[in-house]
From TrEMBL:
Organism: Amycolatopsis regifaucium
SUPFAM superfamilies per record: NAD(P)-linked oxidoreductase
Protein name per its UniProtKB record: Aldo/keto reductase
Cellular compartments per GO CC: cytosol
Domain NADP-dependent oxidoreductase: from-to ranges: 18-311
Length: 323
C-alpha cells in the first residue's frame, strides 16, 4: 500500500485501507480470519477495526487469540467500538459513562491487550447527555486504556457537538468518525464530511462496496437462497434499486475500460475522496479480501473519476447549498 495517512489530528498513522472484522467469529472462522490478517499485513496494512457487538464479542476474541498465538501487538493500530447494544435482535445504544467503561474493560479482556489505539462510540444515545458520554472518553484516555477516541454513525450535528465539546473542555480532540460511505451511499457529503473536515476528524468509511453491491455480483439478479434471507433483505436490499443499478453499470464500464475489477475501481474512488483516511474493507473469505487489496495502489484517471462522480451524485439543496 501507499504511504501511511494521519488519522485526523491524532498521532496515529494508518494504512490507506483498514481491515474490518464484522464477520470474524461468525461466518469467518478463526483460521480464515488468521489468513485474512496475514494477507492484509503482507500488503502493508496496519489498521484493524472491530466492535464489541460483532459476533457478540467473537470478533474481539478471535483477535485476542491471534495475539496470544504470537501476533505482534505493535504491528497493528487496533480500533474497537462500544455503546452499541442489541436488544431483542434490534440495535440500540447505551452511552452512559458506567456502561461504556465496563464495555471497554470487557473489550480489552477479549482482545488480550491493555489498550486500544482508537476507541469509538458506536452510536449516539439520545437518553444520555453528551457530556457524560465524553467523560467516559476522558477517563479511558487518562487511564491509558484508550489512546485516542472517535465516533461512529453520528449525524453531522452530533459529530460537531461531540468534537466541539471536547475542545471546549480542553480534552483530547476526537480523532475520527466512522460512517457508511460508498458510491451508493454519499449522504454524509451533505453535513458529516464538512463537519469532519472543519473539526479535524479523519473519516473511516464502512461498507465501502455498498454492502457488496458494487462488486457487481448482483448485476444480473440475486441468488434465490440469498433473496429469501431476512438479513440479506434488510442489509443489502436497501441498495438494490434502479439508482444503484445505474451506478453499478457505470462502475462495471469504467472497470472494464481500465482492466480492473469493479471492486478495485469503487475502492479507488472512495479512498481518495476529500476527508477520507482509510476505507474499511471486510470480507467473508480470503479471496474477497485479496480482490480488494489487489488494487490498493490503483489510482483512477480523472476522466473516470468524473464519470463515477456524476452517476452517483447525491441530491443536495437547501441548506447545504446556499441560495
Amino acid at each position: 500500500m501507499r504511504e501511511s495517512r494521519r488519522l485526523g489530528r491524532s498521532d496515529l498513522l494508518v494504512s490507506p485501507f483498514g481491515l474490518g472484522t464484522s464477520t470474524w467469529g461468525t461466518t469467518t472462522d478463526h483460521d480464515a480470519a488468521a489468513s485474512q490478517l496475514d494477507a492484509y499485513l503482507e500488503a502493508g496494512g496496519n489498521l484493524l477495526d472491530t466492535a464489541d457487538v460483532y459476533g457478540d464479542g467473537e470478533a474481539e476474541r478471535t483477535i485476542g487469540r491471534l495475539f496470544g498465538a504470537g501476533l505482534p501487538r505493535e504491528a497493528l493500530v487496533v480500533a474497537t467500538k462500544s455503546a452499541g447494544v442489541i436488544v431483542d435482535g434490534r440495535p440500540t445504544a447505551d452511552a452512559s459513562r458506567g456502561y461504556l467503561l465496563k464495555a471497554l474493560d470487557a473489550s480489552l479482556s477479549r482482545l488480550g491487550t491493555d489498550h486500544v489505539d482508537l476507541w469509538q462510540l458506536h452510536a449516539w444515545d439520545k437518553k444520555v447527555p453528551i457530556d457524560e458520554t465524553l467523560e467516559a472518553i476522558d477517563t479511558a484516555i487518562a487511564s491509558g486504556k484508550a489512546r485516542n477516541a472517535g465516533v461512529c454513525n453520528y449525524a453531522g450535528w452530533q459529530t460537531a457537538v461531540a468534537a466541539v465539546r471536547q475542545v471546549d473542555k480542553n480534552s483530547q480532540p476526537l480523532a475520527s468518525t466512522q460512517v457508511e460511505y460508498s458510491l451508493l451511499e454519499r449522504g454524509i457529503e451533505r453535513e458529516v464530511v464538512p463537519a469532519a473536515k472543519n473539526l479535524g476528524l479523519g473519516i473511516l468509511p464502512w461498507a465501502p462496496l455498498g454492502r457488496g453491491v458494487l462488486s457487481a455480483k448482483y448485476r444480473h439478479g440475486v441468488p434465490e437462497e440469498r433473496a429469501g434471507s431476512r438479513f440479506f433483505n434488510w442489509y443489502v436490499g436497501r441498495h438494490l434499486n434502479d439508482r444503484a443499478a445505474r451506478i453499478v453499470e457505470v462502475v462495471a464500464s469504467v472497470a472494464d475500460e481500465l482492466g480492473v475489477t469493479p471492486v478495485v475501481a469503487s475502492l479507488a474512488w472512495l479512498r481518495d475522496r476529500p476527508g477520507v483516511v482509510a476505507p474499511l474493507v471486510g470480507a467473508r473469505t480470503l479471496e474477497q479480501l485479496e480482490e480488494s487489496l489487489a488494487g490498493a495502489d490503483f489510482c483512477l484517471p480523472e476522466e473516470h473519476r468524473l464519470k463515477l462522480d456524476e452517476v452517483s451524485r447525491p441530491r443536495r439543496g437547501y441548506p447545504e447549498v446556499s441560495i
